[in-house]
Amino acid sequence: MDFELKTLTLQQAASVAADALIVLWPDAADAVDADNPADAGADSATAADSCASAAAAKPAKPSRSEAALAQWARAAVADADIDPAVGSVLLAHRLPGVQARKVALVRSGDASPAATRKAVLAAVAALKLGSAQQLLLWAGQPSAAALAALVQATADASYSYTHTKPKAKARALQGVVLGVREAAPLQAALAQATACVKAVEWAKEWANRPPNHATPTLLAEAAQQLAQGKRLQVEVLGPKEVAKLGMGAYLAVAQGSEEPLRFIVLHYQGAPKASAPVVLVGKGITFDTGGISLKPGPEMDEMKFDMGGAAAVLGTFVALAELQPALNVIGLVPCCENMPDGRAVKPGDVVTSLSGQTIEILNTDAEGRLILCDALTYAARFKPRALIDVATLTGACVIALGNVRAGLYSNRDELAQALQAAGEATLDPCWRMPLDDEYEEGLKSNFADLANIAGRPAGSVTAAKFLQKFVAPEQAWAHLDIAGVAWKGGTAKGATGRPVALLLQYLLDEAARLAQQPDALPQPSAGAKRRKR
After folding, report:
1. Residue 367's domain is classified under what CATH number?
2. Is residue 212 situated within a structural domain?
3. Does 446 lie in the same domain as 327?
4. Could you say which of 295, 469, 488, 513 is catalytic?
5. Do residues 450 and 466 make contact, with C-beta atoms less than 8 angstroms apart?
6. Same domain for 255 and 355
7. Which of 445, 253, 410, 457 is nearest to 338 (CA)?
8. Are residues 169 and 242 in the same domain?
9. Percent of the chain with pLDDT over 70
C-alpha cells in the first residue's frame, strides 16, 4: 500500500477520482460564520483547511459545484446529522459534485494525534472499503504527529493476515492520497510514517504466524533477508556457538525442544564505527508451553505471541534500513521454544549463565528472563550508549497496566524520560515502574546465586530486578514489559506491532541528540541504586 501527499483544498479533493473519500472535520471548522449560502462552502473549507494553521490564507471563492462537498459537510453539522463526538461518521453515496463514489465525513475533535487516529479508524470501518483500491483522505493541515497517526490508522484498519489463510481476502487497498493544504512541510513526516508502517506490519506479520510457520530457524532466515544491501549485517548463531559462548541459561530453555535455537545478531551502521551503539534486545520465544511448569490449556495458542519482543526489534530494523538515521544500532534476538520434553529443564535445576552467575530455576515458565539475561550479558561487548530489552515478560504487568501502556523500568532518568516521550509522541505509551532494591529479596536462593522467580507479589517488578542483575551499574539500561500490549485476544485476536513505533521514535530522537551532542551519554539517576516512587 502506497501513501502520497498532495496539496489540495477541500473543494479540489471533490474533483479527485477515488473509490472513497474520507473528510476529517475538526471542531475548529464549526466556528466559521457564513453569511450567505454561496460563501458557506468556501468558508467551511477554509476553516477545516486551516484547523492546524489559523493564519492560513483563505482560498479563492469556489463555484457552487466546487463548494458542494463543503456545503454538504457544513449542513450536516448544522442540522446535527452527525454527532460532535470524535469518531462520529456520516456516509454519503455518489454525492453530487464529488468524484469519489463513497464519502465519509468524520469528526476529528481537536485534531490531535489521538483524535485523528480514532477518527480514521471509525471512518474506514464505516466505509467497509472491501474491494476499494484507491482512497483519498483529506486532513486539512495536520501536525506531523497527527499525520503519522492517520497513516498508521489507515494501515491498521486495512491490514489482513493471509499467510496461512489462502481463502482470506487480502488487502485490496493499493493507494492512499493524503490531501493537505500544504504538502511540502509534511514530506519528511510522511517518510517516517510510511517506514514505521512497514516496520509495524513486518512485526505483526511474524508475530501472527502460527508457531510452526515462525520457528527460530524461519525467523532467523527472515532476519537475514532484511540485510541485503541496506547498511545491515546479520549474524545467526546456533546451539554450538551459543554453548561455546557459555550461555547456559539460554541453552537450558532451548534444550526441551526439537527446534534448534537461533541467536540473531543485527548490526545497523549509520554513524562512524567509533560511535557507541544503542543495543536492542528482543525476547524470541516462538512458542511457550511453560515447559515442565506447564501452562493451562485455554488460550495457550496465544503463546505464539511470546516472540513479540523479537518481532518488534526486527521490525524496527526494517524502518532503520528505510530511514538510515545517523546512529549505530545493534539488535540481539535470542530465539527458541519452551517445551516439556524428556530433556527439558526441571524446576530446581541450577544453571550457569554467561555472566557466571548461577540461577535456580524454580519455575520453567519464567523462561523469558533466562534467555534475556544471557543476551544482556552478551550486549556488554558492544559498550552500548543505551541498552534496551523488549519482552512479553510477565502476566503481572498485564494485571498492573492492562493493554494500554507497556511497563517501563530503567536505571537512568534520562533514558526513561526519552522512552516515555517517544511513546507519547507515537501513541505507543509506556509507564515507568519502580526498581527499589527491596524487591530483590525474593530472588535469593539457598542453592544458587539467585532464583528465577520471587513469588506472586510485584511479579513484573521482580522480573525486572532479575534482569538488572545482569546489567552493569554503569550501563544505561531500560526494560519494556510488553505482555499487555503486544497482542489482542478474543475476536480481535492478533499482534499489534507494539512497541515498534516507540522504539523507532526513540532511535530517531537519539540520532538527533547525537548530532547536537556527539559524546552525550545517559547519566546515572540520583536514585539509580535505590529508587523509590
Report:
1. 3.40.630.10
2. no
3. yes
4. 295
5. yes
6. yes
7. 253
8. no
9. 90
Angle of helix 413-425 relative to helix 500-516, nearest 10 degrees? 120
Question: What is the residue whose three cell numbers read 489521538?
Answer: 114
Within-domain flag for 524: no
CA distance 235 to 268: 12
* Cβ-based neighbours of 481, under 8 Å, separated by 6 or more: 391, 392, 393, 394, 397, 406, 407, 408, 409, 460, 463, 464
Domain match, 153 and 247 both: no
Residues 6+ apart with CB under 8 A from 31: 47
CB 55 within 8 Å of CB 214: no
Q: Are residues 332 and 478 in the same domain?
A: yes
Burial zone of 440 (CB within 10 Å; 0-12 exposed, 13-18 middle, 19+ buried): middle
Sequence-ordered list of residues with C-beta below 8 angstroms from that of 167, at least 6 positions apart, any chain? none
CB atoms within 10 A of CB 119: 29
Whole-number Cα distances in Å, 265 to 299, 310, 320, 333: 31, 11, 15, 6
Q: For 58-68, write each residue's pLDDT tens digit.
A: 434 444 444 78
| Catalytic residue from among 117, 283, 369, 465 | 369
pTM above 0.90, yes or no: yes
What is the phi/psi pair of residue 387, to 5°?
-125, 120
First to last CA, the chain: 45
Q: Spell out where 370-419 has E strands.
A: 386-391, 406-410
If pLDDT is split at 50, 70 and 90, which confidence band does 36 have? Answer: very low
231 an active-site residue? no
Domain that holds residue 250: 233-293+320-516
Q: Which residues pair with 104 in a beta bridge?
A: 22, 91
One domain for residues 174 and 249: no
| Bridge partners (DSSP) listed for residue 407 | 431, 481
Instruction: Tell whether 358 and 492 lie within a shared domain.
Output: yes
In a domain, 130, yes or no: yes
Name 432's bridge partners: 408
Instruction: State the total domains in the chain.
Output: 2
pLDDT at 131: 87
Task: Extract the runs of DSSP E, i.e. beta strands, from 57-149.
Answer: 89-93, 102-107, 134-138
Half-sphere exposure (Cβ direction) of 148: Cα atoms closer than 13 Å: 22
- Same domain flag for 176 and 256: no
Please give the grid coordinates belonging to residue 139: 486532513
Q: Which three three-digit cell numbers place residue 79? A: 442540522
Cα 213 to chain centroid distance, Å, stands at 22
Domain containing 7 — which CATH number? 3.40.220.10
Number of H helices, E strands in the chain: 15, 20
- 295 catalytically annotated: yes
Residue at 108: amino acid letter: S
Structural domain includes residue 107: yes
What pLDDT is attached to residue 520?
66
Contact assessment for residue 287 and residue 211, using Cβ atoms and an 8 Å cutoff: yes
Q: What is the pLDDT of residue 35?
A: 30
